[in-house]
Each structure stands twice: as structure tokens, then as C-alpha cells.
Predict the structure of Biotin carboxylase.
Amino acid sequence: MILVLISARGAGLPFARWLPEMCGQLVAVCAAGADPGEGFAEIVTVTDYNDDDAVLGAARDLAGRHRPNAVFALAEVDVERAARLRGELGLPGLDTATAAAYRDKILMKELAQAAGLLVPAFAPVRHPADIADFMARHPGHVVVKPRSGSGSTGVYVLDSPAQAAGLADIVTSTPYEVEEFVDGAVHHVDAFRVGGRPVAAVVSRYTGQGCLEHWTDAPFGSRSVDTADPICARLVHETWRLVDALVSPPTVCVHAEFFVTGNGDIVLCEVAARIGGGPIPTMLRHVLGIDPRHLWARVECGLPTDLDAVRERVATAPHAAFYGVPPRLGRVQRLPDAPPGVHDFTLNTHVGDEWSPARYSERKSADFLAFWVITDPDFTALGRRLVSTAEQVSAGFVWDRLESEDAA
């Protein structure tokens, strides 16, 4: 039996197709409204998937009835839950101590710094005065973000200590950190290791300011870095150093983000022990030759996987990129057409779809209304096509302003 934790964002994934040997031997804890698909022997739905006690309680009940030999989860919110369940059930995989290091951005940076990796200056935040004190010691922009957040939610970039007072209710109710703003190109490395042996480490560079770009309503994306570029090997090296610094198990997958500064320094942004979100799995499929979630599901569940085929594919794959258009305040009036020559063009919206201020404020960086993937053996041509398709799709959207927005 395999116990699967399925958040709302994991709804619709083809677990039974990815794990055909386990059809009828899968059990799941699901967020309310999430469709786990076919092949499950039992499904328990949790009304509030943010409630750790509810999710863990449902999982323990399932485990007591079915005795699973693996726990599988894809969402950031489930990293520590799955680790805790593995520990209680005596199953292999990420343990609670390592899961905490991948979730808590303070602990993460402490371990990385102790191992010699460059990290931004940082400090825990319990009160706005902590931010003001930090800014007095580190003049300039700072980033204030949840210690265990994801998807750029709850992130604030401050220019002056006076702005900290406006975050009083937020930072006193949720664990936060403050760190210096690093001026550099944001890269991500999606890496997979099985039995202590690397399978793949794909280096990509976000456009603009990466995941923070969506706060400006600007489209953004990511494209793989030319393997001939020396920064590629350096980022891969830093990623494996980071994995070891966080005392990771021999089998692990990570989505690591780094800043590359103008003078070539590589500075850690953060790292997660999971597959990257949004369109990243779709882009990676064109590099790995398999959906990374499919790959990791089989690895985590101890099922046969042709890892050498993945290694060979990565060595010969074309360059790949994704681009996405985020939501904005208002109502969708017209939808774009897919540009010619793109892959996996996906619309996650419809005419009349309304983004109210409340809904808009809760958006994540991966909440694209449209995204697509481009591949090209020519790295320069890939960049040109990325820009042109972004212009076409952005121009294809038409929005109505909401009355509440006009009134504001």
C-alpha cells in the first residue's frame, strides 16, 4: 500500500497511471474538492487542508487500516507531514529533522552558512522592531517573508524601517524572517539523487526578478541555462553542497533557488525538498523525458524506474523554457490563442473569471492564467521566441476593471 497526501493543487494528477502496479493499493488523504482520480482503495477528505492535526489524524487512521510501505506527497505544505508519518511508520525517506531544515528558512540558512555557502544576512522576526533593527545594521532594501512559506505568498520588500510598522499584525502572528535584498539574477536548480547517485540537475534562470515578478502583474518565466556556460556547473556544485549541508538522505529531490550577482557570487535564496511548482514540471518533462512528478512518484514508492534513460535524455535534450501570464485585478473579458510552435499551451481561466481584491491578494507566483513551453536546440533562438510568444499571449488577454477597483 502507498499512502498519498494530495493538496488542492495536486488534484487531477494521474497517480494510478504513474503507478499502475499499485492500482487498487493506493490510499489518500485529500483536500476537500480535490479529485484524486482512479485507482485508490480508500480516500479520506479533509475540509481544511491547512489543519495539520486533521491531515495527520486522517493519515494515521488510513495507515492503521492499510499499513503502507511508502508515503508520497508533492506539495510544500506536506513536506513535514510526510516526514513525520514516515518516522512514525518506520519508512524510508526524508526525516523530520531534514524536512524542518528544508522548510524553516532560518535553519536552512544557518546550516548552509556553516557549510560555507554564501547566504544573505538574515534574522528572525517576532516584532516590527526586529525589522527596523536589522535595517539599521544592513542599510538598503530588505525582504520580509514567512519562515516556512512558498510561492512568494506573504513576501514584502521594504525600502525603509518605517514600513515595518504596517506588518505588525502579520509578523506577530506568523513566524517570519528578514533578509537583505540581493541584487542578482535568480536561478533555480531542479536536482534528483537516488541511492546517493545524482540522476539529473537542471539549471534554469528566471526572467526578471523571478517569482517576485508576479507582484507587478508582469508575465515571467524561466529557461534552461546553456550547459556550456560555466555558471551551470558552478550552480550544480553549490546545489549538491547544499543538499549535503542539510543532511539529506541518499534519495532526495530538490528545487533550489540562487542569486548570481554581478561579480559572479552565488548566494542562496532558498531550497525546497520537492518538485518545483507551476509550469516547472511541464518544462522539465521536455528535458528529462518524463514528468518529474511521475519520476519521483516511482522512486519514492520503490518502483522500477529507468534512471539511466533520464541521464541520457538530459545529456542530449534541447534547451527548454516556460512563460506564464499571472492574474490581475478584474474580470477576464477575452482569452488569447496559442502562439504557433509552442508546447503545452494551457489556459487556467475562462471568460468572466473574476479576480476580486480578496482572491487577488492570495495569489501565488505559480498561479498563471496561461502558460506554455518552448524548446529549441539553439539557445539564442529560444530567448527570442520566448519574448515574442510572451508579447502575443499578453496582448491576447483583455480585462474589465472591477467596480470595487474603480471605486478604490
